[in-house]
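Lecture 7 notes. Example A: sequence first, then its structure tokens.
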Amino acid sequence: MIMDEERFKEFTEEVIPQQLFHVEPKDKDDDSGGRLDETILVGLIANSPSCLKHKPLQWFLDTFLISEKNGTNR
């Protein structure tokens, strides 16, 4: 299903923030050993790939992932 503007707004303002709530950059995914916030975000995008028609992947990374170096974003 193609994501329209309304669904994109819900995805970026509600779904992603809810899934990343209380997740820190130091938290690791039990299965992969990778960063949990990255794993969650990649999974959400993979389940709704049409979100990429609204914004490029880099926008999602810059907007929703916390930089370990300076603690910014999200």
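Example B, a different protein, same format:
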Amino acid sequence: MANLGLLDGIDRTRLRGFSKTMFGNADRIEVAAAVARCQSGMVNGQELHELLGISPPRVRAQLLALASAGLVEQLPRMGQRLNYGIVDRDDPFWTLISEVAEVWGSQSDPD
């Protein structure tokens, strides 16, 4: 899973505001960016909850939205945790969402 430094330098309150305005959900960009930056390409809701401080039901909702869009897929359970894997690491969405998180979460206004 990703590390806690994943969101260093990002104003998460600002990012959540942009996410709410653009996607109708304050958590969408933050969760997607965390998935994008996960080196293994496999995440689960509990780890994302711990990393981001977003409640498990809200994280799950974002994982389900990403799955519905075909960006992640549900993997077989490992113990009690339900894992999701990135379907195509080369999909431009993952680069885009990571860059969006950096720009929109920066202290300066996005260009």
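Note on Example B: The two ends are 31 Å apart (CA to CA). Residues 56-68 form the longest helix (13 residues).
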